[in-house]
Specification:
Radius of gyration: 17 Å
Strand order of the largest sheet: 3-2-1-6-7-9-8
Shape: globular
Structural class: alpha/beta
Number of strands: 9
Bound molecules: S-adenosylmethionine
Strand content: 15-25%
Order of helices and strands: HHHHEHEHEEEHEHEHEE
CATH superfamily: Vaccinia Virus protein VP39
CATH architecture: 3-Layer(aba) Sandwich
Oligomer: single chain
Number of helices: 9
Largest sheet: 7 strands, mixed
Length: 265
């Protein structure tokens, strides 16, 4: 049984979003279909999906890049690029670095050309994958605006749940943000699938990033049609300080919501 709180809907945010599938409708569909994992596509995306990023300068430059099952899919990246254009975030936190970091940091720089200095903080649990991301950032020219934090995961307890989260101290995080608060968050880590993943660990993103988020900061969680992430979406919708707008059916599903700073309300 899922109970959903109904905090006020931040109208200026929702007006700029495309139509989304309400969380309760997605969960009803999943329950009706029955079979575990049925909404989560295991097979690789259709090669035609790459056309959504056909004009992307990063993919043109990194023409040797191979999407893996860990990468955010092209249609999800194209959706996020649109959202960056609509909301023009100045300060981004990303959990789980990779091709998304290269494409979105470059896009953010283009959006803010001649305007403010954008900041993009990305967190990776693996020094090896962080190094691969750094290599891509150097090639596409955004290594100067991206702050990479490498932090292994460790057990934590938050909002009454035992889970796993990046072991980053608050000072390091605040420093990487340059004293700003993030106005957009991408949740694509910690690794939740595969041999080393901790199922459901993305839940901790909202409770543990709260202190670093601006009022009405948007969050986007990838892999949102996977069963544990559906459960996280329902749990987030029940938090007083979050509003879940719904699912965008791109890639492996992207959940869209925003953080509500109770002090600002
Ligand atoms: C879902 S991935 C993040 C992907 C990233 N946002 C992108 O679009 O490329 C989450 C974490 O998985 C790890 N990872 C990335 N590629 C991997 C691979 N091929 N095998 C195992 N782990 C991987 C990295 O440590 C990364 O932070």
């Amino acid at each position: 049984m899922v109970t959903l709180a109904e905090p006020p809907i931040p109208e200026d945010r929702s007006k700029a979003l495309p139509p989304l599938m309400p969380i309760m409708e997605v969960i009803r569909l999943r329950v009706r279909l029955g079979q575990p994992g049925i909404l989560f596509a295991e097979q690789k995306f259709d090669p035609e999906d790459l056309e959504t990023l056909a004009a992307d300068p990063v993919l043109t430059q990194l023409s040797d890049y191979e999407f893996s099952q860990y990468s955010m899919e092209p249609t999800a990246l194209a959706f996020l690029k649109d959202m960056f254009e609509a909301f023009k975030p100045t300060t981004v936190i990303e959990l789980g670095s990779g091709i998304s970091t290269a494409i979105l940091s470059r896009h953010m720089r283009e959006i803010h050309e001649g305007d403010i200095e954008p900041r993009y903080v990305t967190v990776d649990q693996s020094a090896d994958f962080a190094l691969l991301t750094q290599g891509m950032l150097e090639r596409v020219g955004t290594s100067d605006m991206v702050q990479m934090i490498v932090a292994e995961t460790h057990p934590v307890e938050t909002e009454g749940r035992k889970t796993s989260w990046y072991n980053v101290n608050a000072e390091k995080f605040a420093q990487a943000l340059g004293g700003r608060k993030a106005d957009l968050v991408i949740v694509d880590g910690p690794t939740a699938g595969g041999a080393h993943g901790v199922v459901g660990s993305r839940f901790a993103a909202l409770p543990l990033l709260k202190d670093y988020l601006a009022h009405e900061a948007l969050f986007f969680m990838d892999d949102a049609f996977r069963d544990p992430e559906l459960e996280i979406a329902a749990a987030w919708a029940g938090l007083d300080y979050a509003h879940v707008f719904g699912h965008k059916s791109v890639g492996k599903g992207v959940l869209v919501g925003c953080y509500l700073d109770e002090a600002a309300g």
